[in-house]
Amino acid sequence: MTKRYVQCIIYLTLICCLFAQHAQAQFHFGSLTYDKGLSNSTVLSICRDNAGFLWIGTRDGLNRYDGNRIKQYRSDNSDVNTISTNNYIYTIVEHPRQKTLWIGTQQGLNIYQPKQDRFQRINFEHVRPKNSNHFAVLAIYFIESSVLLGTNNGLMCVKNADHPKIENVNILPGLEIYSLLQLGRNILIGTNRGLYLWRDQKTIEPIKLSHTNSSAISVKDIKRVATDKIWIATDGHGLFELDILFQQTAHYSGKTGLSSDYVRAIAIDKAKNIWVGTMEGANLLQPDGSQIQQIKSSANNPFSINDNSIKTIFIDRQGIVWMGTNFGGINYHHPSVYPFKVDLADGNFNHLSGNLVSAIAIDDDENTWVGTERDGLNLRKKGSDVYRKIELRSNTVKCLLTDDKYIYVGTFGAGLARISRQNTTDIRYYNITGENGITLLQNYISSINRDRLGNIWIGTGNKGLQMINSQFTTAIQPTSTFTKNTANNYIKHILASRNGNLFIGTAQGLGQLRNSTEQQGIYRSEDLLKDHYINTLFEDRTSQIWIGTQEKGLYNYNPKTGLVNRVELFPTHSYYHVLGIAENNANEIIISTNNGLVFYNKLTGAKRYMDIQDGFPTNEFLPNAIFCRDGQLLVGSHKGLISLDVSHHQSNEGVPKLLISGFSINGLSRTRVDKVLGYLNPDRAEEIALKHDQNTFTIDFSSDNLINPQKNSYAYKIEELEKEWNLTDQPSITYTNLSPGRYTLRLKTANNDGLWSNVSKSVVFNIAPPFYKSIWAYTGYTLLLMGIVYFFYRYNLDKKQLKTKLYYEEKLHHDQAALMQSKLDFFTKISHEIRTPLTLIHAPIEKILLDKRLDNQVDAQLQQVRRNIKRLLHLTQELLSFNKMDAQKLTLNKVAIDSTSYFENIHQSFVVIAEESGIGYVLDNQFEGSFMADPQQLEKVLLNLLSNAFKFRREHNPTVQLVIRQRNEDLFIHVMDNGQGIKREDRERIFDTFYQADAGKGKEGWGIGLSFAKELVELHQGNLYLDNPLQLGQQGGTVFTILLPACIRQHQGIPTEIISETSTTESTATCIPDSARDYQLLIVEDNDELRSFLLNHLQTCYNVSAAANGKEALAAISDSVPDMIITDIAMPQMDGYTLVKSIKADPDTAHIPVIMLTAKGEEQDSIIGYQSGIINYVTKPFNLQVLDLQIFNTISALELVKERNRRYLLLSKRDENISNAAATYLDKLRTMVEAHIAEAEFSVASLAENMGQSQSALLKKVKSLTGLSVAELIKDIRLSVAANLLIQSDQVASVAYSVGFNDRKYFSKEFKKKFGVNPTQYRENSLR
């Protein structure tokens, strides 16, 4: 009995293990682990909220998963809006009405507010056990408006969920409450000390579980699995089933098929199946509990669960089963996901021989034949996972075909192999050698198929098509016409259709062979899809032909209509390869591509995809390596054989909803971004206001579809910028540098089966412009513009009025200015005209004074004439100075002035007038030092004031005083008279230009004296003003005061610059050298008297000629080039400036020095003269002695220049004072002479011709530069060269001839004249 019982137990165990293994193959689990972003691998609680986010509580932290990324929520003691702790998140439950999350932790209760993405911590200090450091909330259960909390200290209650406050209801204190279930008014309570019933929420009753000590049972979970069944999960005692009367009706444990007696979680899926999590794996039970399927972790299956220790199970509204494990994070599964496995070549004898699976076939006995590239043929018997390799001559299998007796294998290099299905060692080969009576075209067999007559059609690598009859006795090669009409000899695939036609896929199109006579097998050919590379062909149940191409996708051919249509498989891929085609059912075909598998519904056009994101080892499949039968799909890839059960696929019909899971702004911290969002959850934000510098941001989003979430796709657009949707599979978009404005971003999503959301999600972004572009700024700009317009309007109006008002004033001022200018012009012209006759008076007197033979009386009289001439010159200069003052060009020449002598001289100027007119004229100078001023300009001021004082004196007993006073370093000069004074109304304008007060008859003036005087004083940084006579002890009259500030020098002695009118001219004669008497001077002067005077004066020393203007001067120069020119400036026909420019522009005359002798005494005139090239500027009247010395110095300088030029020309000794122009000319001159030095006939005319000059111009130019004649110059150059040659040779005659001397005696004579010795002695002296 015991033996039989043991055998039975072993048998049942084996059955359970086999069943568990079979069940394991039906599940395909994904995972979320620590490495993928979970805060901890121990998962204690799971919840899916109303928005679609998955919440995961772990041993260390809370996590939120959106299908793409995991966000961790960490506790922060400094922020009360974070979760209270990271330790042990035991339970997460969503409030059914509030849609808030209630979270039980090691440190109490937290409520997550999804709108603000924040937590509310619920105070528990008043209910925490006194002997415990923590208050753990282990279970949460909502009952209407109240909430029951299972804690580590019994059952607690929150009576009003809207105003949460924990209250201790004193139910099962001291016990740990793990689970709660409401049954009517009764509450089942699972604790660490058994199961309890809170009957009518009034009394507590323990419920006894049979075969156990109920008080020792730890109840982990309670679920109502049916209307009359309640399941109790216990820790160590298995799974109990109770009826609605709380009576035990069943018990499941390890003995009855559960993976473990330590049961921790129970969940019911949409099919009413019950998922049970234990310490040793998960279990799937039928609703009635009749079958148990164990689900465990497997190291050989990457799609099994990560860890067998299951802590919690949650099934969401999509039917996804989420399992939290102890050490492996989360595993999840959905029934719609195809379960698959991959058979790999891993070196095991019973496994595949190679991973490059190139051909697949299943025979009538459901045995699987697998061909590989380079690794041979494999056979797997029905119901077995063991592969056996069939040895062939070639290990490269290209294609397979089965019939009721044989398996036909097309190989690369070994031709066609026919293997008996009954005896796999019975193999016959057919190849190009004619083995077994049939000769093939090629040993590379690329495709095999059988037509409905039983003939075997063989496609070769590049030899075209061949047919073997059904008896396998002969091989027929198609006729040349047939072959010619075939698209290409590179046969990729052969399809024999049900109606007897053959389709041949080649590298250059599709050939169709129509069967015209069934009995004889005669075909006629047609071509389709020319220039298409055909990979695969397939005929479905409705006789539609499906054509897979290289790069150009999938085509459908309808034999009835003859139409070929392209089928779009990938909307985002223009080019892709279709490698294999199979049929799942009447409506669905399966296509293998280089982008994974495509499940295509022929009726609706719907497409589903499986690829590497679903767990496939690769997306790359081999051509025609695909086979499907009875819902079992086999696909050959580069990484093994993939097997899928496609018989019971459940499409995802759930319409997805887009979720916004994150929002970030470039350069902003998380805290600042939260502030921008208004502390709202990004998914709840409908409008986001951004500043102008926050216009680069990123939006993270996801779908609420968590079934294969990696296959979700998304679309987005900004309505204001884009018309078309942008498709993407990336759950994030970034916009950069958006311009200010209002933008509406629309987002939508498609689930894993391509079903799009009905409604798009909208978020409005309102990007504010910078302040200078804001509405307030533009308002300000508008107001400012209006103000500017108004200002300009008022300005123009006022301007027009002012223009009208000032018109007459301006006219009056203009008239006065014109009058003033005319007066100034008159004064200037008069002054220039006066200077010339003064010169004619002054120059002869200067010449007479130079004669020492004059007696004293005559000399004194002439000195008096000389002084008055100078006085007249000062007057004319004053007129010119006033003109310069008006033009703001007058500058001061300040010197130290002795007060006593200077003011005495000023005083003496009016002594004679005072005596003759009976005027009391007094000089009162109490300052005896020196002061800084321009003596000439100050004299003009004082003379003007004294002249006015004398003019406007009193008729009876008139007095005039010149008073000088010192105050610190300031000098005060008072000019006072006792005349009639100045009227009050005239005092303010007395210093205005051209203003004249009513002074009485005979006392009128020009109105410029006082104005000019004031400006001169202001140039001294001083002031001239009308003073109060009473303050100076005067009873009436007029007082003008000159203030010269900080001008007094402190006891430094009398300087040499003292102005004195008593100086005399020394009678010194200018010594004229004899050499200068040959110099020719040209005088250019339009005044006949002055021209004659200069001519008479200078011709005693020089050769002098004269011209009346510049034009005559140029004519004279062209006839005879002078050595020097003395010219006036203001002349008729051509002035002096133009004359000088013309002279300097001509290379033949540019060397002539020019002295300007003119009445224009202004600095600007002299600057213009010097800029034009003159060497001296002399103003009229002039001192004859000064003019003589200037001429003499110029001639001396010319002689020095000539000497330097001679040395340079003859000895090549360059002087830095020689001008570049002269050096260039002399170099050219010497080069020309040396070039013809041996020519005795080389003359002045020859040299002039070579120099490009006339003989006269050459003579003048050479004479002016060197002082030599041209003939002398040529001779001197010849002798200089001869002297150098004599040092090298003693042949005097030869040297003479080489330098152009035909007569040796004449050469010796001239040589001795130049060097003082004859040629022979010169050589001897040079060699010593």
Automatic annotation (TrEMBL):
**Listed EC numbers:** 2.7.13.3
Q: Does the keyword Methyltransferase apply?
A: no
UniProt xrefs under CDD domains: HisKA (cd00082), PKD (cd00146)
What positions does the domain HTH araC/xylS-type occupy?
Answer: 1227-1325
Reaction catalysed by this enzyme: ATP + protein L-histidine = ADP + protein N-phospho-L-histidine
Q: Return the PROSITE patterns for the record.
A: HIS_KIN, HTH_ARAC_FAMILY_1, HTH_ARAC_FAMILY_2, RESPONSE_REGULATORY
Which residue ranges run through the membrane?
Answer: 775-793
Q: Which residues carry this modification: 4-aspartylphosphate?
A: D1128
Q: Which organism is it from?
A: Sphingobacterium siyangense
Q: What range does the record give for the signal peptide?
A: 1-25
Q: Which PANTHER family match?
A: HYBRID SIGNAL TRANSDUCTION HISTIDINE KINASE C (PTHR43547:SF2), TWO-COMPONENT HISTIDINE KINASE (PTHR43547)
What start-end ranges are recorded for coiled-coil regions in this protein? none
* Record's protein name: histidine kinase
Domain Response regulatory, chain residue ranges per copy: 1080-1195
MF-aspect GO terms: DNA-binding transcription factor activity; phosphorelay sensor kinase activity; sequence-specific DNA binding
Show the SMART domains listed in the entry.
HATPase_c (SM00387), HisKA (SM00388), HTH_ARAC (SM00342), REC (SM00448)
Record's keyword annotation contains Secreted: no
Q: Which UniProt keywords apply?
A: DNA-binding, Membrane, Phosphoprotein, Signal, Transcription, Transcription regulation, Transmembrane, Transmembrane helix
Q: What class of enzyme is it?
A: transferase
InterPro entries the UniProt entry points to:
CheY-like_superfamily, HATPase_C_sf, HATPase_dom, His_kinase_dom, HisK_dim/P_dom, HisK_dim/P_sf, Homeodomain-like_sf, HTH_AraC
**Which residue ranges does the record assign to the Histidine kinase domain?**
829-1048
Domain of life of the organism in this record?
Bacteria
